[in-house]
Amino acid sequence: MTELETLLHAGYRYAVALTGDAADADDLLQDAWLAMLRAEAPRTRRYLFRTLKNKYIDGYRRRQILDFEPLPEQLHAPAGPSLADRQTLMQGLAVLRPEEREALYLCAVEGHTAAEAADLLDRPRNTVLSLVHRGRARLRAWLGTTQKEALP
Amino acid sequence: MSDASPEDRPPGTDPIDRELARGFAQLTPPEDLMTTLLHAAETQPRSTSRRPSLQQLVPTLFLLAAAAGVAFVAIGDPSDIPPPVEPSPATERAATPLTIPAGMRAVTLPVPSRLVSEEDLANGAIVDLVLLQIDRTVTLLTGVLVLHATPEQLTVACSPDEAEMLTHGREQGPIAPIFHHGEQRFVTVPVDAAPIAAGFVARGMRTDLLTTAPNDDDELETTTILRDVAIHRAHADGRVTLSVTPSEAERLLHATERGPLSLSLRGN
């Protein structure tokens, strides 16, 4: 895989962590990537992540103004057994608050320390630790519920 | 990452973390999106260096200052610097509209024809798009590719999100283009036609821009909004195309929404 492909893959996963939705992640990645190219910015993970975050915030503000209604299937996702499964992962991400999703992604998936994630997120380290802890607890509870529902 | 204290690193042994990492590892962007974005990266010139620090710039600035001093002594008045380079509309203007790049959207915008110079209109031109409102101007997008241009409307290529923004923006007020020509930005505005009609205005001259508009007490007040701006072109219909910076372009376009503009030409 080339350097650019690796960067795009990382950017896509972060976009999914931000939006919690694969289709939104496609649009977000495209917007951020084109903005980064247009600005002739350094093609680094840090710059791409920052652009993704800014674009996500812009889009979030605009959605607040336009007041889009979420689709019913996004609100009531069906159950799944493991987060390692793509469909279950997307459903699990939907139960997290956006800031929990982002903090958990940076720490659990990207392997950043709480201090590094705090620097990327412009938040205190203790807040990041708390978000990660709450995110895990929320996912654990959701998985427990869905596994019980899945039983005959 | 490696020098962090042990308690700082979240425990990777947590089953939730492991499942999340495995799940995310399977996530890949759609193939067509990858192709489009990689293609965009190949066609976009790459930034070769990061912005240098002030410390790195000091020797360069010193040399530039010395060179400028020598040039001033050797050449004389800096107003002798040649006027901006004239773009060649014949070579830039394409006969047919450009095709929409893969993954992009095309949005057609009505533009105020008084703020557009026909000489600048070209398929393939690059523009900034500025939303004009009574109380402010907002730059919506910068560096946008024009697919098709007429004096009344522009069709531009943009991302899906930007298309949404432009469609929303055009309901808020008129959208004016600022044309790029290399590092320069060209804006066309209507001005007091008298000096143009008298044959006083020529390309390469420098001018201040004055505007007359009611103040808070509803009394007419004239203020200088821009100083020492290069005139790129004078139009017979009482408009001028000016070479400005992006922020000057915003101020200029904002002023056109408030009151008439006048030139105050500068002597050499």
**CATH fold call of the largest domain in chain A:** Arc Repressor Mutant, subunit A
Overall geometry of chain A comes to: globular
Largest sheet of chain A: none
The helix-and-strand class of chain A reads: mainly alpha
Please mark out the parts of chain B with pLDDT under 50 across 5 or more consecutive residues, or reply none: 1-9, 47-54, 71-94
List keywords for this structure.
heterodimer; A: mainly alpha; Arc Repressor Mutant, subunit A; 2 domains; 8 helices; B: 268 residues; alpha+beta; Elongation Factor Tu (Ef-tu), domain 3; 10-stranded antiparallel sheet
Descriptive notes:
The complex is a heterodimer of chains A (152) and B (268). With 152 residues, chain A is mainly alpha-helical. Chain A has two domains: 1-68; 77-152, Arc Repressor Mutant, subunit A, CATH 1.10.10.10. Chain A is 76% helix and 0% strand. Chain A has helices spanning 3-19, 22-38, 45-66, 72-75, 86-94, 98-109, 114-121, 125-150. Chain A is globular, with a radius of gyration of 16 Å. The model of chain A is unreliable at 65-79 (pLDDT under 50). Chain B is an alpha+beta fold and 268 residues long. Among the domains of chain B are: 89-181, Beta Barrel (Elongation Factor Tu (Ef-tu), domain 3); 186-265, no CATH class. In chain B, 28% of the residues lie in helices and 31% in strands. Chain B has helices spanning 15-25, 31-43, 54-75, 89-92, 160-169, 194-197, 246-256; strands spanning 105-110, 126-132, 137-149, 153-158, 175-181, 184-190, 206-214, 220-235, 239-244, 261-265. In chain B, a hairpin with a 2-residue loop joins strand 5 and strand 6. Chain B is elongated. The model of chain B is unreliable at 1-9, 47-54 and 71-94 (pLDDT under 50).
